[in-house]
Amino acid sequence: MPLRDVLWLAKARESYRSVYYDGYHNDDPKQLFQCWLPAIRVLEDPPGFLPVILCYKINGEWLTGERGGSVRMVVPEAYGFKSVKWLKRVVITNNYQAEDTYALQNNDVNDSWMKTRALFENIPDKVPGNTPFAITGQAQVGIGGLAKVQWWAHPQDQPWPKEDPYFTKAPWQDAEILPLPENWQGSTDLGTMHSTQFDPATRQPNEWPMRYTRCQWVALAQGLKAGKYDLRCRSIDLAGNAQPMPRPYKKSSRSGIDKIEIIVMD
After folding, report:
1. Domain-wise residue ranges, the chain
2. Could you tell me the fold of the domain covering 3-105?
3. Are 107 and 90 in contact (CB under 8 A)?
4. CATH number for the 117-264 domain, one of 1.25.10.10, 2.60.40.650, 3.40.190.10, 3.40.630.30?
């Protein structure tokens, strides 16, 4: 259920600016899992956002301890550290300072919206020459959505100009984003899903890939001559921003262009 419903039941007698919550991990005080949200985010959802949720079921089944049960927090647009497991307490407070677990580790803990980025997976170290081979990966779909995924193979013996650190002038090639799986619904009752993400009539997502999820992508590489290559992939969001833009800084989580080395044999 939305966290705000519970907060209204608490009937706070004064105005408050923040919501603090923590969860059980072990008895070591240095390993306390705790987080902070501004009250405005909890009480009212920005356009296109799902509510902050107190979760005790998933797909109609009770939430297991492995997944954070009996109750965990879910902040849909944020990274996992905001969705604290094994929830112990929720406190409404007038404190304006962030109290996240990572607050003292120089991270951006206030507005850590999920980024859009592409990643490789299951790529062989060596491939035979003159033979097409598959390139596969995942794309993390953040607040900016996902328009496309691109890949590029660059010979290691050809240095790239330092004045183009994000490879904006590289000959990127489009990959294929795999479509919505046929059996993706499972036991979820989509009739109760938020209309921001689902069409109540068709029970289909309003867009694919969906924000705050991951999707699969594939490409076919061919025509590479024998040699050593740096293989890179990047995402393009719905505003046309190429990874690592618009937030290339590590304080708001990683967004660097993924790179792996591959050898094309004779």
Report:
1. 3-105, 117-264
2. Sulfite Oxidase; Chain A, domain 2 (3.90.420)
3. no
4. 2.60.40.650
Tokens at 235, concatenated = 């995402």
Side chain identity, residue 23: G
Identify whether the C-beta of residue 237 lies closer than 8 Å to the C-beta of residue 144.
Answer: yes
pLDDT band at 191 (very low <50, low <70, confident <90, very high): very low
Q: Mean pLDDT for the chain?
A: 88
233's CB contacts (< 8 A; 6+ apart) are: 118, 119, 120, 135, 137, 149, 150, 151, 152, 175, 257, 258
Summarize the confidence of residues 193-220 as an average pLDDT.
83
Per residue in 212-257, pLDDT (tens digit) is 889 999 999 998 999 999 999 999 999 999 999 998 988 778 899 9
Q: Can you read off the two tokens belonging to residue 94? A: 């007038």
Beta pairing, strands 72-74 & 53-55? antiparallel
